[in-house]
Structures are given as C-alpha cells and as structure tokens.
Amino acid sequence: MATQNQSYELMVIFTPVLAEDEFKAAQKKFADFIKENGGKVTHQDAWGLRSLAYPIAKKTTGLYWVMEFEAPTDVNAKLEIQMNRDENIMRHMVTRLDKYAVAYNNRKRNKVTETANA
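Now predict its structure.
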C-alpha cells in the first residue's frame, strides 16, 4: 500500500553570517532534498534577517526561511538528519499541517477575506 503524502511546514533559522547566495543555495538544497525523496514543495518564503527571541550560540539574529511541502512521512527523519549535519542551521522545526492549516495558509497567501461567506 502506497503511503499518502502529508502536508508539512518547515521553519529554519540559518546563521546570520551567510551571504545572500549562500542563503539561497541552502534553501535550494533542502527544497531539492524534498523533491528527490518523493515530495513536492508547495510554497517557500525567505523572511530574511530577524532578531531572535533569545541568543543562540551567542548570535542575536538569524536568517529565517519557511517552506511548505507535501511528502511521505519517512522523509522527515531523513530531512532531520540532513539539517542536524548542516552547521549553517541554528534551529529548525517541522510541523505537520492538517487540511485546515493548509487552507488557511493558502487564503492568507492569496489575501482572501472571510466576507465571501457572508
């Protein structure tokens, strides 16, 4: 039986010392990893340099990147290993999205208002 793809959101905080091209290359690396392992990237958003709530490894800022993707559940364990090996990543978190979260994110991205149901 084939496993159905689940929807996920990945948030990564990269070290702030990355140059713009290195930041883009790091994003591409993980997006490509998802695709190579049977997943599909549905949305990416580079937030750029932001202040951290608390210092991480004596750094007070980080480069934020959010990616939504669909993939088989076993991809997350492989992705986790790749991110833990990457010295440019200070923190990362994968969150499983239910159908309501996916719909909400799509509405928010497309700036759809709730007044359509009124």
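The chain is about 35% helix and 40% strand.
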